[in-house]
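Action item from last meeting closed. Structure (503 res):
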């Protein structure tokens, strides 16, 4: 029997998926500590970055142990499972799929053999030259028959793992320094062998990755909030193009690429936790300032500012502060409703969004309402919200969005709808307003968003708003979530990769 998975997500309507990040990564090197439990709580703090699967790998210096499964971190790991994962070094991963299907075989960490043992790898981001890397794997290691690709894994992470494991004449560190300059796209990596913890970040620094210090060890994580949760002090960001190695000799750093920052601006808008800081800027403060800028750019007379919980709350607070219009909670969110496999009746289906959001009629009735949200993807959620608020007695409904119109897909680790499905691609703002039924609609300008992030425009990726991609993209036939699934089934177990085609 298929059971509801209990996953908390952004979906307010069936098929109306909001933007989702691919993954969260965590790594710890701490002899004498319960590294599996530290990793578990670190992943807990990163749960928002991926809810499809979770996994942890540990090493006691002699062998690696891995436990991973589909579901939330709390669903995957039990007390007994964590107690069995002993050692002094660990990595963890929580996944949302953007390359390869959502399946157990694609859960991370991924594994591979090395000249001296085993490598386990966790990856946040999306590679853009996966097809090229697969060709490299075929040509350089044609006899490699026991990697996860031959076992059916269809992720770019599996290709990267197989390449890291492939050189029998070099150390893992040496192989990484040879391989990473050839990898293109977004990648924040944590990986390990029996003795050592590694972390690496692409030269553009698209996805966040930070370094923290424990009393008796080190931590790396996707977000600084995860350091806070495990009691680690923030040291610094892993620099773009940097490889960090941590073992019994301490920490050492080397660079495999020239930094050319293009950090994802959408981390500030929506993806990261509000209690995280990215490149020196607190995310909550950035979102509040986005709301303030939005109030200056699109003022309107109204009685109340309300957020779409929870993603719109900081920006709504900023809008209220700047405009002087009172802030209130006009929508109540049911945090316990996730995806369900129970087929609703037509009557229940018509309730739609009310399963997750319900209006406070006493707060809304007769008032002119400003509703603040982080983004509009397809527009169906906002349309349903506006209708629901009107039914609750709102006199006027003014929608304000704390980012510019999303008109382009992301190829660096955020799963948006394709371009044809993005409502802003084909409609002007006033047409979008008419489509969702609002009395007015205002999007934050790109300039206002960037100013609120306190980052240089030249050091940000804004591709989903502008179509200007900072990392070169391959041809369309070498892009897409299911790129490797097109031909991976034809890979024979003997590892003869030359029979696979991605064209």
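Sequence:
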């Amino acid at each position: 029997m298929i059971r509801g998975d209990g996953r908390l997500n952004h979906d307010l309507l069936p098929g109306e998926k909001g933007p989702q990040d691919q993954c969260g990564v965590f790594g710890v090197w701490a002899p004498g500590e319960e590294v599996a439990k530290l990793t578990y709580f670190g992943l807990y703090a990163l749960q928002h970055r991926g809810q499809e699967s979770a996994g942890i790998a540990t090493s006691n210096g002699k062998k690696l142990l891995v436990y991973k499964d589909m579901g939330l971190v709390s669903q995957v790991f039990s007390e007994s499972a964590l107690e069995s994962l002993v050692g002094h070094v660990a990595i963890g991963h929580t996944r949302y799929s953007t390359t390869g299907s959502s399946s157990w075989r694609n859960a991370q960490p991924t594994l591979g053999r090395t000249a001296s043992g085993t490598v386990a790898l966790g990856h946040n981001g999306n590679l853009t030259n996966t097809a090229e890397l697969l060709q490299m794997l075929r040509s350089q290691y044609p006899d490699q028959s026991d990697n996860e690709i031959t076992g059916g894994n269809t992720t770019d992470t599996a290709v990267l793992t197989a390449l890291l494991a492939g050189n029998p004449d070099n150390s893992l560190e040496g192989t990484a320094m040879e391989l990473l300059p050839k990898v293109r796209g977004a990648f924040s990596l944590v990986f390990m062998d029996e003795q050592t913890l590694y972390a690496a970040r692409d030269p553009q620094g698209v996805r966040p990755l930070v370094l923290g210090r424990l009393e008796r060890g080190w931590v790396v994580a996707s977000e600084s909030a995860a350091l806070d949760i495990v009691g680690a002090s923030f040291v610094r960001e892993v620099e773009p193009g940097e490889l960090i190695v941590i073992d019994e000799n301490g920490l050492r750093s080397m660079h495999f690429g020239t930094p050319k920052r293009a950090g994802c601006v959408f981390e500030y808008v929506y993806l990261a936790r509000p209690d995280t800081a990215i490149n020196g800027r607190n995310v909550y403060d950035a979102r509040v300032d986005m709301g303030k800028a939005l109030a200056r750019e699109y003022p309107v007379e109204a009685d109340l500012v309300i957020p779409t919980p929870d993603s719109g709350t900081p920006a709504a607070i900023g809008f209220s502060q700047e405009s002087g219009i009172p802030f209130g909670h006009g929508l109540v969110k049911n945090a316990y409703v996730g995806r369900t496999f129970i087929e609703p009746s037509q009557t229940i289906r018509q309730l739609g969004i009310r399963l997750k959001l319900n209006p406070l009629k006493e707060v809304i009735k007769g008032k002119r309402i400003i509703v603040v949200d982080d983004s509009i993807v397809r527009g169906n959620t906002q349309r349903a919200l506006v209708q629901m608020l009107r039914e609750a007695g709102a006199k006027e409904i003014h929608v304000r969005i704390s980012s510019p119109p999303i008109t382009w897909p992301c190829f660096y680790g955020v799963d948006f709808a394709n371009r044809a499905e993005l409502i802003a691609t084909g409609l002007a703002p006033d047409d979008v307003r008419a489509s969702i039924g609002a009395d007015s609609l205002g999007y934050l300008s790109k300039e206002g968003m960037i100013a609120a992030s306190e980052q240089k425009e030249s050091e940000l990726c804004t591709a989903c708003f502008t179509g200007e991609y900072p990392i070169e993209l391959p041809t369309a036939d070498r892009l897409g979530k299911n790129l490797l699934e097109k031909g991976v089934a034809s890979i024979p177990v003997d590892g003869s990769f030359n029979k696979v085609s991605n064209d």
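Note appended to the action item: The chain has two domains: 20-265+487-498, 280-454.
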